[in-house]
Write a structure and sequence with these properties.
Ubiquitin-like (UB roll), DNA polymerase, domain 1, 5 helices
Length: 170
């Protein structure tokens, strides 16, 4: 379940990265998967370790705005990068992000296990395409497994978030 250690990586290295707008520095085995650093070092438990094989999407976070499977991403590859997790979306006063609100309002997070990854993938999609078609939404979320059957509600939540974000920009 951990990223494979590359032969060109040292045993330990100092990695500086920004996580949810906070600069962090740590000495770590550079082959350690990002998900373990997020959960064990920074107590950010939103991303879940599902399959460890980039198959389920429960671990997706954003790295420099792009969706990344944190279960297989070596921390040593993230020097100077910006990582955003589902915990970083809410406002400082605790108000949920529009995407989080939409998922909550439409009960798109039935059991919740895969929800953080879906929300982060949605954020990346809407940043690139503020008015996605239903087909584009389905394609963007194709790498996520939801066994609860909430997928139709997830699509509606993405559509609602898209509309609400566009309203805010007017």
């Amino acid at each position: 379940m951990c990223a494979t250690k590359r032969p060109d990586m040292p045993e330990q290295m100092t990695v500086t990265l920004t996580v949810n707008a906070q600069t962090r520095e740590l000495v770590v085995d550079p082959g350690t998967s990002l998900i373990f650093v997020l959960r064990d070092e920074f107590a950010l438990n939103g991303a879940k370790l599902g399959c460890g094989l980039e198959q389920c999407g429960a671990c997706v976070v954003l790295v420099d705005g792009e969706p990344v499977y944190s279960c297989t991403k070596p921390i040593g590859d993230l020097e100077g990068k910006h990582v955003e997790t589902v915990e970083g979306l809410a406002a400082d006063d605790g108000r949920l992000h529009v995407i989080q609100e939409s998922f909550l309002q439409l009960n798109a997070a039935q059991c919740g296990y895969c929800t953080a990854g879906l929300i982060m993938r949605t954020k990346a999609l809407l940043a690139d395409n503020p008015r996605p078609s239903r087909g584009e939404i389905c394609a963007a979320l194709d790498g996520h497994l939801c066994r609860c059957g909430a997928h139709p509600r997830v699509i509606k939540a993405v559509e609602r978030a898209s509309a609400r974000l566009r309203e805010r920009k007017r």
